[in-house]
Structures are given as structure tokens and as C-alpha cells.
Amino acid sequence: MDSTPPHLPQLPPRDSASHKGDCGRVLLIAGSDGMAGAAVLAALGALRSGAGYLHVACAAKLVPALTQAIPTAILHAFGDASRKTLSMDDVPAMLDLANACQSVVIGPGLGNPAHVAPWIPELLHQLRQGLPKLPIVLDADGLNHFVAGGVDWRLCTASMILTPHAGEAARLLGLENAEAIQADRVGAIQNLTSRCPAAFVLKGANTLIGQEGRETAVNSSGNVGMATAGSGDVLSGHLGALLAAGLAPFDAAQLGVYLHGRAGDRFAQEWGTDGLTASDLAQWISKAMQEWRTQAS
Q: For the domain 23-296, what is the CATH code?
């Protein structure tokens, strides 16, 4: 297993003549009533990681909050002003948006599938049919919807990154709780990668990154302060930006997890681990990326 930063991939170079259309278009499908913050954090993760354009597909009720929090995002509102969640009816329009983007992030704050019909399996099916090579990050409630719809590993392609924590990994594997995952995390990620060709990020202390045919990587960055609400949302947006910039899924996952942890470490060097928030991670990711570019030069 590899945990040494020099073995990580490099960030794609940015030409001095680049314009925003050259820097990656990310589609974020996120948020629901009461969970707008998850969409905001994922959006910040993408924008602070260099995405040139960020499109956000969301229920219309979230628009006022998102407009104020992320004015640089392009919002695509679904339903009338009272609509609280996205739904199956929105899938065709989401596909149209995805067709104009270089990556899609699905999941942060979408809502509990116990209360919202799990439409994500249908979206994944349509994406696989029409845009089979489009990079996708499936995170948080995206994973929960995937499980609620009946886990169909055929929907998970080599262009995808799935980012479960231990509880979500247990649900993906049909286990009762996270304890079995935590007892053998290496075995768990190997089990996951045997199910489909997607890349997996098994989050937690010493996050693991795996993909079929690749050696499992152990992340060496990060600290206890990152055990905070919204940290994973920032990571999903960050990964979406790296994919849109052209990194392959395993490379984006391995480098993205490291830089996300490095952002937390840089904050901790200045302020300590107490009080680290997900918003802080988004703020420091740009610094972590700049330092990585400098180290590589």
C-alpha cells in the first residue's frame, strides 16, 4: 500500500491564456429543503478547486439561499417556489445539463430516500446509456438513493468515484452496521472494488482509495478536526473539479483526498484542530493546491 505523497499524480497544468470555459464545467446535483448547506459546501469545494463553471441543479425552494451563498454558480431551479426536493420528473433536464459538462457530482443534501423517491438509479442508467464516459462523483444521499433503489452495480462505470463512509459502505454491501467495515477496512474496499469498475473512496481516519486493478492507496494527510459536518460535501465538489480538469477517477480520488486532508492540516497549523469547519476546508483547498503545484515544479 502506498501512502507517500511523491507518488501522487500531478494537477493538470493551467495555460496562462486559459479562459473559464477551459477550466472545467461541473454539474452539481444537490440540496433539499433544510439541506441547502450541503449543496453550498460542495459548490465551494468545486469552485475553490478551480472549476471554471459550476452548474447547480436544485429544487426551486433552495434558490434564494444558494444565490446568496454562491453567487458565482449557475443555478437551474426545478419546480415552483415551494418545491423542496428534486424528483424523477427532473431527470431529462438533468441529462441535458450533464451533456454540457465535464463532470457531475450527485448527492450532497438530496434528502433521505425514505421520504423522497429514489430517482438516482434512473439518472445513472440514463447517463450510462447516453454519456458512458462522463465522470461522476456519487456521494452522501446519492449513495443512499442508490441503495434504496436496489443496488445495481451495473450502473457503476469506470468513470465514476463513489465516496462512502463506513455506514454507507455497509449499506452498499448489505451489512447491518459499520462495525464490520471498521473491523477490516482494507477488506471492505477490496470487496467494493470487486463489485464494479468504479473508483472508491472509503472515508475515515487514513482514508482508503481503491479501484479494480489498482493497488489500494492509504491517505496520509488530514487530522481529527476534519471529523466535522460537511467535510465530505467539500470533498465531493473538490473531486468533481479535478475530474472536470481531466484527471482519471483513481488519480482524482487519490490526489483529491490528499489535498482535502492537506487543507485541513494547513488550517490546523494556524489555528489547531478545534473548531475546524467544512467552510474552512473549502477556503484552504486552494492553498493546498498551490503548494502542491509548487512542490511539483
A: 3.40.1190.20
- What are the structural domain ranges in the chain? 23-296
User: Grid cell 511523491 — which residue?
Assistant: 6
Axis crossing angle, helix 249-271 with helix 231-244, rounded to the nearest 10: 130
- pLDDT tens digit at each of 297 positions of the chain: 444 465 899 998 876 656 666 669 999 999 999 999 999 999 999 999 999 999 999 999 999 999 999 999 999 999 999 999 999 999 999 999 999 999 999 999 999 887 777 899 999 999 999 999 999 999 999 999 999 989 999 999 999 999 999 999 999 999 999 999 999 999 999 999 999 999 999 999 999 999 999 999 999 999 999 999 999 999 999 999 999 999 999 999 999 999 999 999 999 999 999 999 999 999 999 999 999 999 877
State the cell numbers at 204.
475515515
What secondary structure does DSSP assign to 183-246, as a single string?
A: HTHHHHHHHHHTT-SSEEEE-STT-EEE-TTS--EE-----GGG-STTHHHHHHHHHHHHHHTT
